[in-house]
Amino acid sequence: xxxxxxxxxxxxxxxxxxxxxxxxxxxxxxxxxxxxxxxxxxxxxxxxxxxxxxxxxxxxxxxxxxxxxxxxxxxxxxxxxxxxxxxxxxxxxxxxxxxxxxxxxxxxxxxxxxxxxxxxxxxxxxxxxxxxxxxxxxxxxxxxxxxxxxxxxxxxxxxxxxxxxxxxxxxxxxxxxxxxxxxxxxxxxxxxxxxxxxxxxxxxxxxxxxxxxxxxxxxxxxxxxxxxxxxxxxxxxxxxxxxxxxxxxxxxxxxxxxxxxxxxxxxxxxxxxxxxxxxxxxxxxxxxxxxxxxxxxxxxxxxxxxxxxxxxxxxxxxxxxxxxxxxxxxxxxxxxxxxxxxxxxxxxxxxxxxxxxxxxxxxx
Length: 364
Prior knowledge:
The structure is a single chain. This protein is α+β, with helices and mostly antiparallel strands. It folds into three domains: 2-118, no CATH class; 122-181 and 247-283 and 337-359, 3-Layer(aba) Sandwich (Rossmann fold), CATH 3.40.50.300; 186-246, no CATH class. The chain is built from eleven helices and 18 strands. It has helices at residues 18-28, 108-118, 146-154, 201-208, 212-221, 228-239, 248-252, 284-298, 300-312, 319-336, 352-359; strands at 2-5, 9-14, 41-46, 56-58, 63-65, 70-74, 81-85, 94-99, 122-131, 134-139, 159-168, 174-177, 182-185, 243-246, 260-262, 265-271, 278-281, 340-346. The strands form three sheets. The chain has an eight-stranded mixed β-sheet. An eight-stranded mixed β-sheet has the order 15-12-11-9-10-16-18-17, with helices on both faces. Strand 5 and strand 6 form a beta hairpin. Helix 3 packs across helix 11, helix 5 (212-221) runs antiparallel to helix 6 and helix 8 runs antiparallel to helix 10 (319-336). The two termini are 41 Å apart.
């Protein structure tokens, strides 16, 4: 199976078991297309090989290595599965070999991001859509409201480009997305009833279940007076325990999913304590400088495994992983500095319709 990320990164997958095929599809979405070039990443699934007495372990059972190879470990005891990655290859042509049944391929998206970066394409933790002909990218720290802003505009007729990871082309004008499943929380649906019918019956039942702890949280959240802000935060945390993953095509309809668009406007989302939604102009360069650290944060799992690999094989390194932070900062400043940008401050979780009302003048 070949996957082509808009001509930027090509992934070839060799798998026989349906569960392995489904696991990759859940990570990459519907990007299957024949590659007319050599793949950048080859993912292979092999039969589990059981115990390996020659392995030396790192962090107990998190990673291991032998004389030649480095392995990430998933699961425990008899169900443990190994994934072999040579991190010295990351950023160039590389191979990932997983034992069948491992579930999602470890660090697949992070590896794709390093390949894209090596080609001058900037991966950004963001959502993106086109509304009334205007291409908008929404970025910020994790849990800042990116998906909620996307949902707000999709409910008003926008065209989906992507959620979670957006790829900015080398000239800074185009956006591409991976159609990963979108995480829909139970608190999304009351404000977006049009999407409820598009969920599977089991998904609707799961999101509609109210536990005793949630009911207690709702009562706490309605209390007034001193300390109610803390109680509301406790309430919110308990209420946000139920979610489902839905493909963008199922949620929005295939006709509303373009997966690519222009980069015209930049939205920087930040949560705060005040209840209203505030929108203010901001310099694109300021967003770029802040997002440089957000991207480093999102790369922590890759960096942790890379350092384990360097512990095992000090002489083997990846130039692109070592240089990623500086390269990202350069591209962020290059692409964002001249963009029309704004910062959106809101209480999380936000009122989704209020995000649309506040931002609609920008996307004009």
